[in-house]
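Dear colleagues,

I hope this message finds you well. In preparation for our joint manuscript, I am sending the GGDEF domain-containing protein (Paenibacillus roseopurpureus) sequence together with its predicted structure, so that both groups work from identical material. I would be grateful if you could confirm receipt.
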Amino acid sequence: MNRNRSSIISDGAFLLLILACFVSIVFTTGNPNLYLQNIIFLNLAFLIAVVTYFTNVTTGLLLNILFIFGYGTFTLYQTVVVGGLIGTQNYFWLIMTPIFTIATWLFTYGNRQLQAENEQLVKANESLATVDAKTSLKNTLSFQKDATVFMALSVRYHIPLTLMVIGVKYWDEIRRMINEEQLMEAIHDLSKMNQTSIRTNDSLYLLNKDNPMWGMLLFTDRQGASIVINRLKKSIDERNRDAYAEKFRIELDLKMGAVEYDAQGIANPLEFIVQAKKQLEYDV
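The corresponding structure tokens are as follows:
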């Protein structure tokens, strides 16, 4: 509802601004004798509108007050000193200049409201999304939900559950050597490779995209996780020889660690991640 209101305000103000420009141009060109004078006032109206756009309505209204005071002084001079008559010309710009200011402010207000609402929607989407858009992998939020269920199943049915985490060695140095597009492509390739190395009933998560770290929830013990680790290391060695060296002109090396779930020592999914990350320190 608020978004529709902001959109209506923005659209209405834009149409009002276009209409004011059309009327002002027609009025300016309608009297050739006062063409230069009207052009000056039209430019002043536009200038005040531009200042309002980049500041706020208070500044615009203050400038309008100054304009009205100055225009009133000019009209008084024309009437008393020059002997001119007060006509439509004298009232037109007193009305149109504030209209330009109000229309510009409403247009700016509506756009800023839409931008603020869009940022809120983006943040809400990021906080609620459970899948990474580029890799189609589950994220940390999804991991917390799934791990809570798997941890409960592990305790109830005495099924071993192991979290294996995977990182990229020397990532900070690598990101200085290849561009952003290649970085995302490397993350995508590594994600696909990790996915093909697990069973269908195991789950893979992208826990960190900035400094890539994947997590695998494996229904196996620590010894079984070692088999997966060896399989992944073999796969990355083969890809370094065949694909990565040619595609990225660098070797991508993985570091891996795993920890088996212990209900006494691991209270929640985030603690599960912390315990598994500590194991990465031993893979050098």
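For the figure legend, we might mention the following. The two ends are 55 Å apart (CA to CA). The chain has two domains: 2-128, 140-280.

With kind regards,
E.M.
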